[in-house]
Each structure stands twice: as structure tokens, then as C-alpha cells.
Amino acid sequence: MSVYPIIMAQKSFTHKDNLNYPFEERGLQFGDGVYEVIRIYDGAYYLLEEHVDRLFRSAEAVKIKLLFTNEELKALLLDLLKRNEMKTDGKVYLQATRGSAPRDHVFPANIPANFYAYVQDQPRHSEKLEKGVSTITQRDIRWENCYIKSLNLLPNVLAKQAAKEQGCYEAILHKDGVVTECSSSNVYLVKNGNIYTHPATKGILHGCVRMRVEKFAHDLDIPFIEEGFAVEDIEMADELFLSSSTSEVLPVIKVDNQQIATGKPGAITRKLQEAYEADVKQRQIQFTK
Ligand SMILES: Cc1ncc(COP(=O)(O)O)c(C=O)c1O
Fold it and tell me: CA-CA 20 to 30 A from 263: which of 12, 237, 246, 270?
């Protein structure tokens, strides 16, 4: 996945080779920062406002003062795609850290936040969307504030790696027997026509696609119940699926080597995938006008 040449650094644009970070950088040394991944379809952002709003919420929660307003950042991110003549399916990764300063746990005084954003191609994973994926389950060992999209991803990295080592796509995380989310996506269980998912507490990331899934369910008259389900409920599920900006609405057909229902993506998951497709088309028009 190649990175496009022009990146955003602080509030301006430069060639990616010009980005030089000091080794005493708070993101590098403490994971003292927040980030976002925004999906691009055919060169246009999907859910740009939602991601930028969440970045501001995350930054505020950890007391990082961003260099721009919400509106300025959206304009800069649109410019970033234009400058790179981005026309395909991809994503933008962006991160803001507390800045560069001599290493000290205490916040440095009067240091500007560091920011960069870059564009990458990201083809859609059509085969997985069609056939579904396998997952494992793992204990959720993360902190209490997972609603903050922080750079501290070590537990998520370890969980995803464990999944990969077992030939799986994702790790479903659970705390005290209740499923929270996955290492890099939200997770939903379908039973008797209802969708169950963990409530949007501080214990999970409030996914931008999760917000859309809730709306799609509402539009389709499918009850969307924000109630955590138990790990033991999974084997009796009619359907299971994930959502995220890179995974989209992704069927899960196996958990810990146990097949879910028929082992094929379920009807409700398919309807939500169709709603997602339609939403992408509709929202893209907004941004290309
Ligand atoms: C832990 C976690 N949960 C959920 C999500 C899904 O969020 P979104 O739908 O905004 O991409 C992500 C995305 O990276 C994530 O890292």
C-alpha cells in the first residue's frame, strides 16, 4: 500500500521525505497522542465529519490542544486529497501528539502539538466481505478509556497478532465475560432478528461506522440493542459481524474454530452491507459537489 507523496505536517503540506521527527517526541516515547483513520472511496472521504469530530473529542479528553479548528482541519484534509490527485479507494492516517520536548512524564509547557496526515491506497477486501472471516476470542486487557482513540495500542496489537497467528482476521475482546469490541473494530451479534452490541460507554471506541450501522438498523426496522452479550452467547448466535472504516460491515463465520449458524454470512448482515454501499454512494456525492 503505497503512501502518496504529499503529506500534511502541522498546518502545511510537504513531500513525505521531508518529515523529520526528533527522537524526543511524545508520541514516540509515551504514545502521548491520538489518531484517526478515515476511509476514502473513489478519491472522496467517507464520514469525514464524524472522524474529525472524534479526533477533537479524543484530543480534548487527553488535554492536547490541536493547531486548528474543526473546520480548518476538514478543509486541510480535503486539500490533501486534491494535492495528491487521489482518485482511488484508500485511507488517510492522521495523528496528533503532545509535541516534541525533552523526555518527562509531566506535560511540557508551551510546546505546539505535532500533527501529520498521509494518504494511502486501500483496496476494498471484496472476498472477505462476500465470504466472511474467522476470529478468535481474547480477554480485553485494555484501560478504562477505550473511547479515546489514543496511540497506546499495545494490547490491540498483541490481540490482532494472536488472531493472525491462529489464521484469523480479528480478535473479539471480552471483559468479565462480556464482549466489548475487537482489536480494531466493533462487533455485533444477531439473535432472533435483533442486533446486540456493547453500549457506547468509555469501555469501547465509538466507531464512526458503528454510528452508521445503528442508523441503517433503524431505517431497516431492525432493533439495535445496546446491551453487551456474553462470550457464551456467541455459539448460539444467528449471525455475527464486525464494523470499522477498513473492515466496513464484515460477516464473521467462525469464532475460536466454531462455525456461526450455517457458516455463511446472514441475511441481516447482508442488508446492512447493502445499506453501507448505498450510504457510501450518497455521502460521496456530498463531498465531490
Ligand atoms: C478498537 C477499535 N474499535 C472500533 C473501531 C472502528 O471504528 P471506526 O468505525 O470509526 O473505524 C476501530 C477502528 O480503528 C478500533 O480501533
Answer: 246
Segment 231-246, tens digit of pLDDT: 999 999 999 999 999 9
For CA atoms 10, 16, 21, 26, the dihedral sign is positive
The residue type at 176: D
- Name the DSSP letter for residue 93: E
Provide φ and ψ at 35, rounded to 5°: -150, 175
Ligand 1 atom 4 nearest Cα? 185
CA of 110 to the centre of ligand 1 (A): 32
Q: What is the atom index within ligand 1 of the atom nearest the CA of 245? A: 11
Grid cell in block for residue 164: 493472525
Q: Is the pTM of this model over 0.85?
A: yes
Q: How far apart are CA 205 and CA 191, in angstroms?
A: 23
Is there a contact between 133 and 250 (Cβ–Cβ < 8 Å)? Answer: yes
Residue that the C-alpha cell 498521509 belongs to: 118
Q: Ligand 1 atom closest to Cα of 181?
A: 3
Within 8 A by CB and 6+ apart from 43, the residues are 81, 86, 87, 88, 90
Cell for 201?
Answer: 460507554
Instruction: Report the CATH superfamily, name and number, of domain 126-283.
Output: D-amino Acid Aminotransferase, subunit A, domain 2 (3.20.10.10)
* Domain edges within the chain: 6-121, 126-283
Q: Cβ contacts of residue 270 below 8 Å, gap of 6+?
A: none
The per-residue pLDDT for range 66-97, each reduced to its tens digit, is 999 999 999 999 999 999 999 999 999 999 99
Is the domain covering 6-121 a CATH 3.40.190.10 domain? no
8 Å CB contact between 73 and 85? no
